[in-house]
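Changelog entry: the Ribosome biogenesis protein YTM1 record was regenerated in this release. Current contents:
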Amino acid sequence: METTEQETVAAPGTDTLNVQINFTTKDASVAFDQDAPILVPTSLKRYGLSEVVNHLLGQQDEPVPFSFLIDGELLSTSVQDFLTKRGLSSETVLNVEYIRSILPPSFLASYPHDDWISAVALQGQDIVTGSYDSLVRVWDQSQHCKATGIGHTNAIKAVAYAGSLTGQQANLATASMDRTLRLWQLHASGDALTCTAELRGHVASVESCDLHGTTLVSGSSDGILGLWDTSDELGQPYIATHQAKRKRQRGTGVGVLTSRQLKQTHSQPISQVMLNPQDASLAYSSSWDKSLIATDLTTMLPITTIQTGSPLFSLLSIPSLSIVLTGGQRSVQVHDLRSNQLTRSTLQGHGNFVSSLARAPIMSGVSNNAYLFASGSYDGDVRVWDLRNDRSLYVIGRTKQERKERQSTGSNQVMCVAWGEMGIVSGGEDCQLQINRGVHQSITASASA
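Regenerated structure tokens:
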């Protein structure tokens, strides 16, 4: 629909203040020509502005929900409140970008486990979980456990993958409270998971790991940052003291991989480590000691240290926006490592520790996903955020399922969250792996409608 002169949307005879708006969009499928600003009531909020745009598009019968960006900030109040907050008058001509709204995530499925789910990663159509029963499992989307990995002797705290699970190299890593990490390979048939190496060197619980190519980093509860190269030659299998007394022979177990470096980086437990997705020589680590540290892995020396003032429990790097997110006691903090400062107000909303952070998958034609992430918390909720807004978009609660008597204490604490093409996947103390329809899927569906 084309607008050739200033159009007024306010009803005639009303005393409502109006403001001039130039509407723009980067989505060609919902664009319209506008040669002059459009007058709209300043009392309108997102829904009212969405009605205006749908009217201009001629979409009244099948309206498309829109959200609105002004100076890069999502509008979450009325236009008048925005003007007041910015100290602007209604005489201002606003340039407003409209984008397709994010639809609420819907519950899809729940996969029962025998113990707490402490780690999750997504690989294509597969889901990899680590649990307090010391098992790593690979699931398909029909709730079928394709393969189970046995080897750890204590709870698994983290899982990480690089590339395909069925590649020639072992591309799945797990970290455990048994003070070791393990490398795994999924058989081509997809029905067997084989441990190919045991990584020894840490002397405390290994809380986190991340894998990029052959570079693996780990963080332990004694503040040690570990660096490993998964292509290094393996040593002889480890034999525990009680095994040696039974005269078990060397070579009967999996080979041991030793670390390249083990460096005291934090004074308290490391909660999470993460490699920079665009530069595997740079690692980030968050800790209970309230610090976020960026480490150059070529020297194992810190490049940047940010003291946050509260313990940190999770971490997420978003290189495309040059920021790192950390999860604290009840909030998510946004950091710009170039300035050593918080870049904006802390994102509030959770009622307990923020245990996990996950970025929305980057998909072709869905530019908004660059700003989206999910956070899981011990308050039992997963929240969906847009970095252009200081409030969460949606809250995903736990869906109650029947529990085995030996499974859960009744707590709904969320311990892990991941986000992939299949949706938002979370797990925790309720022993249920819950899948909610990914927000990006709703956007994609709208774009193709």
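The domain at 105-234+252-401+408-438 is CATH 2.130.10.10 (Methylamine Dehydrogenase; Chain H).
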